[in-house]
UniProtKB/TrEMBL annotation:
Species: Gillisia hiemivivida
Protein name, entry field: DUF3800 domain-containing protein
Length: 393
């Protein structure tokens, strides 16, 4: 599956962060999470989305600038209502969410500069995987000038390919650019699902409202996965050993392939990212193939369900990544029940096919007085054994 670069539409990403650079998160007023969110909009839709956001903002507040931290949105009910309105707009969300406590405890990144260089690398690797033609816009008065470091990193480290010829960056005043305000509000709202002193009783609704817009919430460190739906220790349905093995294999695959430029590999990683996000949201939920194909389609790559099953899911399974399926869709399995449904799904297709072959063989032998008996050929010995086993059930 190849993409024609002439058909790749240009996207504009408005980027903002929530949290601070301090590594002294044990102090009061210092965030434990650092979150960078990019709001991605098709260049052809940019003006329309900007005007629609302005209209929504005027409906909710008279303030000249929308800011997530403003007094107007400290009330969680008002924030939820605003999110419901902006969720009607046409944009996508990609976020990197870093738990600073785990980074500095476990990873060996003991210095702030090394930490932010690594975050820059995460953004570079994954954001441009989704959008080869991407212009990024950031607030020129942004706190800590995070984008300065990201721009420097990309220009120095990003590998140019046939589809990606170089980064485009621009700074703008958030007071004059409403879509930077949108990025600020999304980043701040996602923080309310993670930052311990910001989580509220309705925080879980935030990701539910934004769900159809989310490409990936890239948590780091990510293994073991953080679940948005809490799994009780005594829940026998959830198999931690199974989940740990699957995520070990996923991490191996991503680490081995994240620098490859083949479109097929990019599609597989996009698929994995979305399956991971949905697993963390609800490990028991299945995802229809249309939803995953829709995430791949943002790269102007159009897959049929058959090609998706063969080239994306099939190749991931060939790489020993366990993805189960049923009539309800695809998922990363978390319990024995998922595996049973997977086996049942294939059994319901395979066994009738075997039975049909057995009936066909009887008809052929009857019609030819036994002169044609294909199942006696060594080439069909395994098939004959399967037919006889099925018939003896």
């Amino acid at each position: 599956m190849q993409a024609n670069k002439k058909n790749l539409s240009k996207k504009i990403g408005y980027i903002d962060e929530s949290g601070d650079k301090s590594i002294h998160f044990e102090k009061g007023g210092v965030s434990t999470f650092f979150i960078v969110s990019a709001i991605i909009i098709d260049e052809n839709s940019n003006s329309r989305v900007r005007e629609e956001f302005r209209a929504i903002a005027r409906k909710h507040t008279q303030a000249p600038e929308i800011k997530s931290s403003s007094k107007a949105f400290r009330d969680i009910d008002k924030r939820i209502n605003f999110l419901k309105d902006i969720s009607k707009l046409d944009f996508r969300i990609y976020s990197v969410i870093v738990d600073k406590r785990k980074v500095f405890e476990d990873s060996g990144l003991q210095f702030r500069d090394s930490f932010y260089k690594y975050v820059n690398g995460l953004l570079d690797h994954e954001l441009y995987d989704y959008y080869p033609y991407l212009e990024l816009v950031s607030d020129n008065h942004g706190s800590e000038k995070f984008m300065d470091g990201f721009i420097s990193y990309v220009e120095k480290n990003h590998k140019q390919t046939e589809l990606f010829k170089g980064p485009e960056f621009k700074f703008s005043d958030s007071k004059e650019e409403p879509l930077i305000q949108l990025a600020d509000f999304i980043a701040g709202s996602i923080a309310k699902c993670y930052e311990p002193d910001k989580v509220e009783y309705r925080s879980k609704e935030i990701l539910q409202i934004l769900n159809r817009h989310i490409l990936h919430l890239r948590e780091w460190p990510e293994n073991p996965p953080k679940l948005f739906r809490k799994i009780e220790d005594g829940d026998q349905k959830y198999d931690q050993e199974l989940v740990d093995f699957i995520f070990f294999r996923i991490n191996e695959f991503v680490n081995a392939n994240q620098n490859r430029t083949e479109i097929e590999i990019k599609n597989q990683i996009i698929c994995l990212n979305y399956l991971i996000y949905r697993f963390k949201k609800d490990p028991y939920e299945y995802i229809f193939s249309d939803e995953i194909i829709d995430r791949i389609k943002i790269r102007d790559i159009h897959l049929t369900k058959r090609l998706f099953s063969k080239e994306v899911i099939g190749n991931l399974r060939d790489n020993k990544i366990l993805i189960t399926s049923s009539q309800s869709g695809y998922k990363i399995p978390c319990c024995k029940g998922d595996l049973i449904r997977f086996y049942n799904n294939y059994s319901s297709k395979i066994i009738p096919m075997i039975d049909t072959l057995g009936k066909t063989d009887i008809i052929i032998r009857s019609a030819t007085s036994g002169n044609i008996n294909l199942l006696e050929d060594n080439d069909y010995k395994l098939l004959k054994d399967l037919i006889e086993t099925s018939a003896s059930r």
